[in-house]
Amino acid sequence: MNKIHPKKIKYWLGDFSANLFATLLARVLKGLPPRAMIFMARILGTMAFHLVKRYRIRVLGNLSLVFKEEKDLEEIKKLAKEVFFNFSLTPLETLYAYIHPFEKFVLKIEIQGKENLQKALAQKRGVIGLGLHLGPFTLVGARLALEGYPFNLIINEGKFPKLWKRLSDYQRKLGQNPFPPKPASVSVKKSLNALRRNEILYLVADEQQIQGGLPVPFFGQTAFTPPGPAIFSLKTGAPILPMFIVREAGIPRTLVIGSPVEIERTSNGKKDTELLTAKFTRVIEDIVRQYPSQWPWLNRRWKLPYQKGSLDMGEQEV
Q1: Would 75 be classed as within a structural domain?
Q2: What is the DSSP string of 189-210?
Q3: Res. 183: pLDDT tops 80
Q4: Fewer Cβ in 10 A, N or C end of the chain?
């Protein structure tokens, strides 16, 4: 008899537990106002900060790497606690948006820069939404879908397929069209078709990607960055527009749609991709710098390839 690998059992249990927790949490959130959800996130974030040492060290290390010249240790610790609070709030908001009428939550998010989107769509080449894990990023598509904009996004299913299927079902109910990155040929075809239909293709590009990522500056350090937005933009002519939602006092308030990222073409396609990737990464850096507590800081963003066994910047004790 073939033995089941321990990792498969671990992931199955994790997937089952996460789904069960999401079911119970949805029932709890159904009868609560947004302020109660914020209170829950504050408790969960505080618990995670104190109990999950591994991620506390990583967040403190990343914050220290970026803000060591601007903030002292106490300021960094205070900022880290807010990071854990905001990170805990994101999945609660996703569930809350799914189980409550749109007008009670999602429609209350104001849109700033809608003219940038309309002008970009007038070019009839589609729009690449430049996404990042800032604030309630899972609600960007929901809010724009309510305005009538077709919204497509690539979502990585990770190691918990049932949980991610559930999340995809939520996103479809909220008016979005999610699809996985694999197989790559299918994902690329769906992405190009969405742009040809003059729709929004939302690509989150703020995480480390060693395989296939391009080394570009991010907060003064080399970060391997997914070049997808640059590749699709250069291939189709679709403009890249930053899209993110900002919280105020824990409540999603404003969906910001920025101006298009400027494209400079040369005779070298590879160089064009590198330049555009560096440009949109600078845009992401500027956004994170404005709202540092609403970005998770959990990713090993500055880990370099071929350094197995060494500590990355975000793993050092503070």
Answers
A1: yes
A2: HHHHHHHHTT-EEEEE--S--T
A3: yes
A4: N
